[in-house]
Design brief:
Length: 179
């Protein structure tokens, strides 16, 4: 497997990739607020059976993301078949990169492809002397939440109006160490 910068010809494979996932847990949000206090809590809830969830972003965003010429990476096999992709943008005003998409083809998941893409993205951010990387996930996307946590990302907030389909987004941050 090789990770390289995406080319225009790769976008069709990224567009067509099945981005749905199965989950058997969700983060259930409980929120309470008043003029003097705001509380939000997420409880891990096991579902009675696995649930298929559609990816919340529209694939038409990919061309615009690629056109920005920032960090759009693909993982490819020996035949140059796209196995997964990651796209990320730098937000210089607060020295942070923001991962917009990290998707691995359904048939190739749980083989280290996402981790390899993430390592390459971290190297990209480090080379630009950014201080951290932000990532997001739907509260339903327990596999992604565990992925971010496994790689050292720490929960740092939520937005209950983030996705157009009404799903809640939770955000995670990874500090980049510079020596």
């Amino acid at each position: 497997m090789l990770v390289r910068a995406a080319q225009l010809a790769d976008l069709n494979a990224c567009y067509e990739m099945d981005k749905s996932y199965l989950t058997d847990h969700v983060w259930q949000m409980h929120a309470h607020g008043s003029a003097h206090l705001v509380e939000a809590r997420f409880d891990l809830i096991r579902l009675p059976r696995p649930m298929k969830v559609e990816y919340p972003r529209h694939p038409d965003e990919l061309l615009g993301n690629w056109s920005r010429e920032e960090c759009f990476l693909v993982a490819v096999d020996e035949a140059d078949t796209v196995l997964g992709f990651l796209d990320m943008t730098a937000q210089a005003w607060h020295s942070t990169a923001w991962i917009r998409n990290l998707v691995v083809h359904k048939e190739h998941r749980r083989r280290g492809i996402g981790s390899t893409l993430l390592r390459s993205a971290c190297a990209w951010a480090h080379a630009r002397e950014l201080n951290g990387i932000m990532a997001e996930a739907q509260t339903k996307n327990y596999p992604a939440i565990r992925f971010w946590q496994k790689h050292g990302f720490v929960y740092c907030g939520y937005n209950d109006r983030y996705y157009t389909n009404g799903d809640i987004a939770v955000f995670f941050f990874l500090r980049i160490k510079h020596q």
